[in-house]
Amino acid sequence: TTDYGAMAGSRLVIITAGMSRKPGMSRDDLLAANANIVGPIAERIAKTAPEAVVIVVTNPLDVMVALTLLRSGFPRQRVMGMAGVLDSARLRAFIAERLSVPPSDVQAMVLGSHGDLMVPLISSITVKGEPVTQRLSASDVATLVQRTKDGGAEIVALLKQGSAFYAPATGIVEMAGAILQDRHAVLPVCASLDGEYGLRDVCIGVPAQLGAVGIERIVELPLSVDEHGALVDAAAQVRQGISALAALQANPR
């Protein structure tokens, strides 16, 4: 349907609308075009489904979550982005493939920005309960982390037209299930921070407990100095994207 009235009273709205990347195109290349799509949608959601929880999938993800939060006027608990679930699944899959084990044997979590500044928690990655560093060298882990960062671009290059959809859809379903079934599950999501991890006024990937109200709480994991520094760097990049979007909207071409 093209009728926004169809989502009246919805408990959950998922925004996937937007341009998809083409080969050679970065997520940030999509900034202005997708802001013009996502912004008006956020406003319509606020009018049509004012009690809904919103999951944003459109890239550049972190900036689009910030835009949706602003344009909807919703509290931060009810607006989040799907990225960390996808990035974590990709990293787990690549490690499992490298070690010839089922992905279910690998535990890994990716925080930070959805893009080059994602923050995989290397020290927390386990394979059958053992630290991944007992199975793989540091250089092997670094190679798999880089492939995770390039995962979206790898899919775009293979498809030629369009972008990844199977894995993102699976991530969306996992988040939607946690919310609609009130599971209180802890998943990595893009959320607006208000002091957590020492960060404020930025949307970035962190672990969050999800339930019927949306984000029930941000889970603050102990991070190494390097991991926290990487999270701060990712937040700075997101702020740059938000500033660039504000400049584009103030001075449209």
Question: β content, as a range?
Answer: 15-25%
**How large is the count of helical segments?**
7
Quick one: how many beta strands? 11
Q: How helix-rich are the residues, as a percent range? A: 40-55%
Whole-angstrom Rg: 18 Å
What is the H/E string? Answer: EHEHEHEEEEEHHHEEEH
Structural features:
single chain, alpha+beta, three-stranded parallel beta sheet, 7 helices, 11 strands, globular
Q: Could you explain the architecture of this structure?
A:
Helix content is 43%, strand content 20%. The protein is α+β, with helices and mostly antiparallel strands and 253 residues long. The strands form four sheets. The protein has a three-stranded parallel beta sheet, with helices on both faces. Strands 4-7-8 form a three-stranded antiparallel beta sheet, with helices on one face. A three-stranded antiparallel beta sheet has the order 9-10-11. Strand 1, helix 1 and strand 2 form a beta-alpha-beta unit. The protein is globular, with a radius of gyration of 18 Å.
Q: How would you summarize the topology of this molecule?
A:
Layout (H helix, E strand, L loop, with lengths): L11 E4 L15 H18 L4 E4 L4 H12 L6 E3 L2 H16 L6 E2 L2 E3 L5 E3 L5 E2 L2 E2 L6 H12 L1 H9 L6 H15 L4 E10 L5 E12 L2 E5 L6 H26 L3
Parallel strand pairs: 1-2, 2-3
Antiparallel strand pairs: 4-7, 5-6, 7-8, 9-10, 10-11
Brief summary:
This protein is an alpha+beta fold and 253 residues long.
